[in-house]
Every structure is written in structure tokens, then in C-alpha cells.
Amino acid sequence: MDWHIQAGRILADQKLATRDLSVTNGLLTEAPARNVSVIDASGLLVLPGIVDIHGDSFERQIMPRPGVHFDIALALRDTDRQLVANGITTAFHGITVSWEPGLRSVQAAEELISVLVGIRDNLACDTRVHLRWETFALDQMATVMKWLALTPRPILAFNDHTTGSVLKGTIARKIGQMAERSGLNRTDYMSLLDQVWSRRDEVPMAIEALASAARANGNVLLAHDEASPEDRVYFRALGARASEFPLTVETAKVARQKSEDVILGAPNVVRGGSHNGALNAAEAIKAGLCTVLTSDYHYPSPLHAAFKLSSPGGSDLPLIWDLVSANPARAAGLNDRGSLKAGRRADLILVNAEDPAHPHVVATMVKGEIVYSSRLLRVRSAIGVSIAAE
């Protein structure tokens, strides 16, 4: 179905203005098609769809409690509904491949990816893979390398939660949670951790080999939880184009000095700070040290973070919205979305922001198809017959 959106406040060219917007064959166009259905968007904001390049809330659908597992297709379909209801039109599922057994094992990742590939075309959100490789998962590297060739290409992020666990850093306090997730008791988990740590001298060569394979294949590379400016310089040399959740202000500064993206979590903004003592995202944004916000562990947060960061009246919303749409699209190498320009995918959302503290997604459109509506939209066909889009 082709569309003509009328009377909405449309975010385009870094400003909000009341005008019309047309969608033909799934793309944004300058003028409406001959036979078109009209959406009356008066009183609503029309915004580019949210591009979420790091989200792992779906894990709670698969395992809502330790040891309690649900069917993966069921979990992913429920996650899909959450995504589009919260204005997310492109989502990279953060699938962790670890040396742990259980939820983040290579076997669990293999099953998840297999199911996702099988149902992806039937999901409303454009759902992709963000491979989070634990750098001590040496025996799993060959499988990760195979997944680099998935279509569409996954993002690859380098993660190291092992060093922090062993050296009693910021991750050490999560040992109990990590053991529960793996299905092991604390004693057995610590024993396995010791075995993994004993191979630490093999890790740098493995990182370089996987980075080389990813660069050759055209995968976007990210580095997660960089602890120092030296880490940023190291992963930059390997081709990691962005710093994902850097642990220090100095690390974020080193990234921004090279105009690299710095990725932080939107829940950090919504809650007023990090839950684990990391950078304050709102402060980082004000200082120019954060360019991308992601859902991380809470899908409603990108939408709500953008409005929380906006000044009263929302005059700066166009610039802030880039944090959840245009900038993550750029960081992920997706140049066909993230802004409402003619020729780009018609990925957009209609938002009721009468109460900016609680913005409400009225409808979500992915590649020209309305995939979610929270209520009946005011829609009429070209010949004036009223219809409802749900």
C-alpha cells in the first residue's frame, strides 16, 4: 500500500515542520502515487524509525528466570512486538558467544541464530545480528567466523568480561549472576573461569585473526567496555569503528577526537545514570562524548531518552533524535535509513508527544508497511472511503 501522510510535524533536514510526506513502494518520495491511502497525522510527530544497534532484552524472553527456558521462536516473536510498539524499526540482537555453558554458550547462539534466520522475513522489525564475541571464547572462534557471512552481515563486537571477573574489577560482583545464567554452581563456575584464564596468552592473536576476517568480509566492528585510551587505540588499529560502552571519560574523548562514534545505553539516560557505575550518558551527551544511544536491556528507553533529553518545547529534538536514528544507522553502515529523505526506506513512527514525559507511539511503519498501531488511525483511501489501519 502507498501512503500520503498529511498535517504531521515531520522531522526532516534537522527541523520539525508541518508538511506532507509520501511513501511509494516502501520508499519515501517527493509526491504521492496515483492510488494512495491518506493518513491524517495532525497533532502527531512523524519521526525516523529508531535504529537499535545493541539490545539484549530478548534474553529475558528466552530465559525469564534462571533455568526457565521458553521456545526461541515464541520469544523472538514477542520481542518483535515489543520492538515496533516502542518505535524501533531496525534492531540488532546482541547475541553473546561465550565460553560459558547455558544462555550465552555457542550452542545457545547457534540455535538462536538458526531460528532467527528462519523467521526473520516474517518479523515486523528489520531484525539483524550483533555478534558479541567474548575474547576468551577461543574454542568458539571458528563458529563465530562462520557467522560473519550471514545475510545481512552481522555487526561484530569484541567483549572481555573474563579479565574483569578474574582481576576483581567491575564485573567480579556479577559472578553469582553469571554462574546462575550458565547453569553452574558458583564453585564449578569459578573452576571453569580459572581454566579459561589460563589460556590468556592466546587471546591477542585470536582477536587479531577474527578482526582480520571481519574486515575482509565487510562486517562493522565495535569494541565493548574499553577500559582505557590505550584500548581504544588498539581496537581502532584492528578496524573497530566505534567505542561501545567505554568505561572512562578519557576513553570516550580519545574516540571523539577521531570523530568515532561512542555508544551508550538509553536506559542510563532514562534512569538518571548507569546501574553499574559507568559513564553518565546524559552528561556524556552534553559534553559531546556520546553519539549513539541503544536500548541495551530495555526496549522503551531510546524513545523516552530522546524526549527526556529534549528541552521544554522540543526545539532541540531534531538534533537529539539523531542519537537514536541517524547516528546508529551510520555506525551500522546502513545508509538507506535514519532520516526522512526521498529515496530512503519508509521506516518511520508517528508519536503523540502531548506529554513529553510519556511519549506514545501511535503507529510504526517499516519499509512502507504499518506494522503497529496503538489505536485506530485516521486513514482514508484515494476515493475517500474510511478504513482503519491496525
TrEMBL record:
One of its GO terms (biological process) is organic phosphonate catabolic process. One of its GO terms (molecular function) is hydrolase activity, acting on carbon-nitrogen (but not peptide) bonds. Residues 204-372 form the Amidohydrolase domain. It comes from the Bacteria. This is Alpha-D-ribose 1-methylphosphonate 5-triphosphate diphosphatase. It comes from Phyllobacterium endophyticum.
